[in-house]
Amino acid sequence: MKARKVKGLDPAGTLGDNAERIVAARLDELWSFVPRALDPAEVEALHDMRIAAKRLRYVLEVTEPCFGPYARQAGRRTKELQDLLGEVHDCDVLAPRVLGLIGTARTEAVVEVVRRAGDAEDLDPALAADAPHREAWRGLEALLVHLRARRELLFARFLTFWAELEREGFRARLEYAIGERPAGSTVGTPS
User: Fold this and answer.
1) Is residue 77 a part of any domain in this protein?
2) Tens digit of pLDDT for each residue in 149-175?
3) Could you give the residue ranges of the DSSP H alpha helices within the chain?
4) What is the domain-level CATH number for residue 162?
């Protein structure tokens, strides 16, 4: 996912003003994946949301001294979101790989069972029951069940976490924080 361009940056402007624009753009980018990312079938939107969370987190970590106290908390919450979405993404990437391994093992087993059958008119069921890789199938099937169940649990945690962010006013509070400058702060002001 390509990052959105940040409009209105001024090389001669203050760090605080430019950081405000960057954080606002990254926050908009993160929110742009809702409601698609709230659908468990929207794997790509969820992955893109993770990348957007990472971008927001990193810019907050670097620029947080420019803003009010909520910016630090927002950075921590964004890291939590990014980590959770990363765990979901791991399941989304691994499950198809495991399915591919299962398919390969089954194809190899079919070839071997046909070879063992030789020129028989019909297949003896005992040959299929004694197919190669049958132990690997069980392990791979168990791994696939684990990955799919874990993904469901993690996705449910994500939905709960996102609802918490909404309830606590994460976006509005961060927008307010980036619009204010801490009293007495010289960070982000021209010298």
Assistant:
1) yes
2) 999 999 999 999 999 999 999 999 999
3) 15-31, 43-63, 70-117, 125-129, 134-167, 170-179
4) 1.40.20.10
The structural domain count of the chain equals: 1
Please give the DSSP secondary-structure letter assigned to residue 112.
H
DSSP 118-163: TT-SS--HHHHHT-TTHHHHHHHHHHHHHHHHHHHHHHHHHHHHHH
Q: Is residue 185 part of a domain?
A: no
Q: What pLDDT digit, counting tens, does each position of 41-70 carry?
A: 999 999 999 999 999 999 999 999 999 889
What residue numbers bound the domain in which 94 lies? 15-179
Alpha carbons 94 and 54: distance in angstroms, whole number: 21
| Cβ-based neighbours of 44, under 8 Å, separated by 6 or more | none
- Closest by Cα among 8, 51, 44, 47 to 26: 51
Mean pLDDT on 104-129: 90
What is the rounded distance in angstroms from the CA atom of residue 120 to the CA atom of residue 153? 48
Whole-prediction pTM value? 0.86
Number of CB atoms found within 10 A of residue 153's CB? 13
Residue 189 has a pLDDT of: 53
